[in-house]
Amino acid sequence: MKRNKQLTLAALCMVVGLTTVLSGCTSSKQQAEVGGSGEKTKVVVWIWEDAKNVIDLNMPAFKQKYPNIDVDLHVLAQADVYQNFLIAASSGDAVPDVVNLETLRLSQMVQTGGLLDISSKVAPYKDKMNAYKWADATKDDKVYAMPWDSGPVVMFYRNDMFKKAGLPSDPKEVASQLQTWDDYMRFAKQLKEKTGYAMMADSKTKTDATFFGQMLWQHGLWYFGQDGSVQLDNPEVIKMGQYFVDMVKQGFVYEAKPWSDAWYNSFKENKFATVVGASWYDALLPTQIDPEGKGNWSVAPMPKWSKDDKYASAIDGGSNLAINKNSKHPEEAWKFIEFMLGSSDSQLKMMKEGGLFPSLETTYSDPIFQEKVPYFNNQPVRQLYVDAVKKVAPIVYTKDYPLANEMVINAFAEIFLDNKSVESVFQKTATQLRQKTGRK
Length: 440
Hints:
By secondary structure, the chain is of the alpha/beta class. It has helices spanning 2-33, 49-56, 59-65, 78-91, 103-110, 119-122, 159-164, 171-177, 181-195, 210-218, 235-249, 261-268, 281-289, 330-341, 344-354, 382-389, 401-417, 422-437, and strands at 41-47, 69-75, 98-102, 138-139, 142-143, 146-147, 153-158, 200-202, 253-255, 274-278, 297-301, 319-323. It is built from 18 helices and 12 strands. A hairpin with a 2-residue loop joins strand 4 (138-139) and strand 5. The radius of gyration is 26 Å and the shape is globular. The termini are far apart.
């Protein structure tokens, strides 16, 4: 009887203990769901200011879900993000935990070996994101970054300037009459003759080659072919370089280095009428570039080389988030990334209030894409971005893009400064690029 009583007590203790353990497990699980144990974890994110401002929109909701994860959004200039991370990656530093990377530099950063393989983590999202976004994030079939925003290219234009020049100004009419680059040149000629306005702004000797690159991408061409070969001496590529040169020489381009003070001032001074640019101008025009321009800007599709072109748009930039391979907090870092980029609610908020067009395609059916945008003369411009991103060539920047683009910038400077032909300079540049990269 005594022994039985002891067994009963022992059994009771086991039940109580098991209940306590299970309770503890449940508590631990709940804590894990909100960011781990009672101790707080600090996740350091290297990010540039514009991106940080958009992430801030979702931080209250993130803190509510993960109260035990402190996020330090450490702001750096874009160039400093890359330079500093290259140093951190080579030295094995654990900071940052997360790094914000532009797509145009992503492949280059993947090649450093400093990013964490997150293939298994992003697997549920592979079919939900713009397909082209994964290529630059991938090396040897392993994925090293999560896509954030995409940069489908459209044409932002000043409807008041078009109207003053006797050109169509309604978005539907513009889309109907300005379909090709020949049309764009024709509009530029009438605009210049009737009003004195330039069609666009760029620089002869200090271009960033974005306009040229967009023309290539829209036509399914790039600095490198699908087999990796250098394409700068391809006749079609030379043709597009010649187009930019012709635009400049005919006075259709206002001289201003992109993103310089002169470039910003040219918007205020009404110097030119169009920006062939990425969807992220949706945020920059009303907030930083031309806040006084409400109602004067409208949006139409990007011009094509031929109405029958297979592709109708291009990509300019876009960004991604990646985890430092040496991070001491990779799980918390992933929770931050997944919350910001894998959630439709988060992505839609960042688009509506921050102007970043999501790579997450499950968002595209949301009514927000049909909303009229007051700044753009109450035009529902976001649907144009959806249409554009569905009609881009599956081109990737590749690790050699920064070098190739710098050489193209120097090529245009040589063409204008020394009055050389586009063909001769591009052929020479192609040879030099082959020598520097080892490509065919």
